[in-house]
């Protein structure tokens, strides 16, 4: 069989693995990987071995390779990716697709071994509060190397594409992240937390400084709202930042922890009065896409990424990074139920074609084939 008649084989490195969907990259692997397999592309996903009790070699047509790692907060991802990159360079895959700019330096391996490669660099990791000092410097160094060592740099929003051009003089291909819009869910599921339809504001995201949940919680506590504030998410380790928030003595605050059940999560989105989005450093954000796809009225921090996703205020309102601004937007939202209803009614229209999973997969499939510089037959 000639090379041109065999299916394209793509390896994905840098995520926790598949099927493991508790993060943005893992959801991305599921949505894109499964679609590529349906199109006749062979897909191999490298997984963090410690996260999987059972280790099947194939699930839903996706090949799985389990690699060890040093199990600490700062080293687990890097060590797993390094070992995965060494392994993949000795394999017969056609293209290596890496996610996370932390893996920038490992592009030297695909370069040495002559493997076509691409990297999705995600957000402005070097600015995130959780990576202070050495961590921030490493991310800046790694992001710069990612622009030089991989054959194709991928950003997931127009604004992120501009930033990589401005900061590193590095052109990239913008491919956004997809959404799965939903119109209905089982509203009784929110009763678990004593909630009723539109009786609460909602935050969804990890309880880390980057997402500004503390700012939103502080503003909410100072507001006169009779509603509740439901905070969905946590951190998988004992953390002073998260603990301080959880210990605030206000009965209006509801901390649900992680909500693994996607039906429950959909019900929380569908029935909220408004969804708060404090994420500051990413590009296209999966939680924001869910809020759009589930028909939420969105109150977002005023950043260039959120301006892009909400099309400069067409699909949401903005608040500034200070407590007074949060209090003000809560008062405005409480006093404008008809405007909140209007935002909910048109929110799904904000999911332009660039946020469609099939279109996203089309873009990646074309890119992978172009990297191989060959025509593959399905």
Main structural class: alpha/beta
Q: Alpha-carbon distance between the termini?
A: 14 Å
- Lateral strand order in the biggest sheet: 3-4-2-1-5-6-7-8
Shape: globular
What is the CATH homology-level superfamily of the largest domain? Answer: Glycogen Phosphorylase B
Mean pLDDT: 91
The number of distinct helices, counting runs of at least 4 residues, comes to: 13
- The topology string of helices and strands comes to EHEEEHEHEHEHEEHEHEHEHEHEHHH
Radius of gyration: 21 Å
Number of domains: 2
Catalogue the unreliable spans.
374-378
- The percentage of residues in β strands lies in 15-25%
Q: What is the makeup of the main sheet?
A: 8 strands, mixed
Tally the beta strands.
14
User: What is the helix content?
Assistant: 25-40%
According to CATH, what is the class of the largest domain? Alpha Beta
CATH architecture of the largest domain: 3-Layer(aba) Sandwich
Q: Write down the CATH topology of the largest domain.
A: Rossmann fold
Written account of the structure:
It contains 13 helices and 14 strands. By secondary structure, the protein is an alpha/beta fold. It folds into 2 domains: 3-178 and 356-372, Rossmann fold (3-Layer(aba) Sandwich); 187-353, 3-Layer(aba) Sandwich (Rossmann fold). Strands 3-4-2-1-5-6-7-8 form an 8-stranded mixed sheet, sandwiched between helices. Strands 11-10-9-12-13-14 form a 6-stranded parallel sheet, sandwiched between helices. Helix 5 links the parallel strand 7 and strand 8. Helix 1 (24-38) packs across helix 13, helix 3 (107-113) packs parallel to helix 4 and helix 6 (213-222) packs across helix 11 (323-334). It starts with 8 loop residues before the first strand and ends in a 6-residue tail after the last helix.
């Amino acid at each position: 069989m000639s090379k041109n008649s065999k299916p394209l084989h793509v390896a994905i490195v840098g995520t926790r693995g598949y099927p493991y969907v508790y993060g943005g990259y893992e959801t991305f692997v599921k949505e894109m990987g499964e679609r590529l397999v349906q199109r006749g592309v062979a897909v191999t996903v490298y997984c963090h071995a410690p996260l999987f009790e059972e280790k099947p070699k194939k699930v839903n047509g996706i090949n799985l390779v389990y690699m060890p790692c040093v199990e600490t907060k700062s080293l687990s991802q890097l060590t797993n990716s390094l070992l995965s990159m060494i392994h993949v360079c000795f394999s017969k895959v056609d293209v290596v697709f890496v996610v996370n700019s932390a893996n920038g330096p490992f592009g030297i391996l695909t370069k040495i071994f002559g493997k076509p490669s691409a990297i999705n660099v995600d957000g402005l990791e070097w600015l995130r509060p959780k990576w202070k000092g050495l961590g921030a410097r490493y991310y800046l160094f790694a992001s710069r190397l990612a622009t030089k060592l991989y054959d194709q740099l991928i950003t997931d929003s127009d604004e992120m594409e501009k930033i990589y051009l401005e900061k590193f003089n590095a052109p990239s291909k913008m491919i956004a992240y997809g959404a799965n819009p939903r119109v209905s869910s089982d509203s009784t599921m929110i009763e678990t937390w004593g909630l009723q339809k539109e009786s609460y504001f909602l935050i969804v995201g990890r309880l880390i400084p980057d997402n500004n949940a503390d700012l939103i919680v502080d503003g909410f506590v100072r507001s006169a709202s009779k509603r509740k504030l439901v905070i969905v998410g946590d951190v998988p380790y004992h953390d002073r930042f998260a603990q301080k928030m959880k210990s605030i003595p206000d009965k209006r605050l509801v901390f649900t922890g992680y909500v693994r059940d996607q039906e429950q999560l959909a019900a929380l989105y569908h029935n909220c009065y408004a969804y708060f989005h404090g994420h500051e450093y990413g590009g296209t954000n999966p939680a924001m896409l869910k809020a759009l796809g589930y028909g939420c009225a969105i109150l977002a921090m005023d950043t260039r990424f959120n301006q892009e996703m909400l099309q400069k205020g067409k699909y949401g309102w903005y608040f500034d990074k200070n407590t007074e601004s949060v209090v003000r937007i809560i008062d405005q939202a409480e006093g404008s139920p008809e405007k909140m209803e209007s935002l909910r009614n048109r929110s799904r229209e904000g999911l332009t074609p660039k946020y469609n999973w099939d279109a996203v997969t089309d873009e990646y499939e074309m890119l992978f084939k172009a990297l191989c510089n060959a025509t593959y037959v399905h």
